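Page 47, continued from p. 46.
Same chain as before, 101 aa.
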Amino acid sequence: MVKINEIIDELKNKNMTVERFIDKYVPLRVQSMISETLNSTLNSHQLNRLEQFELEKFAELNEDVLSESQTNMPEEMKKLLEKLIEIDKKNDAKGVKGYKG
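Result:
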């Protein structure tokens, strides 16, 4: 029984490590990929605006990596959905056609 508890504890630790990696480092990687794509497609004026945004965003993401807080995934997903709905409504008001799966 002691051996089973040790295995369970080890698996819990591994799971927490993976969760922490996903919470902290995946957003940095995704933002980096987005920035890399935009850098290859934007004009110089837009690149200046992107640079300003990146300075703020990467500072925020870096601060999150260094913090000890855990991400509340369901709450974060809810916030993301609300932002997407807001963006979709703005695009509808502007007459921008988007994906309506």
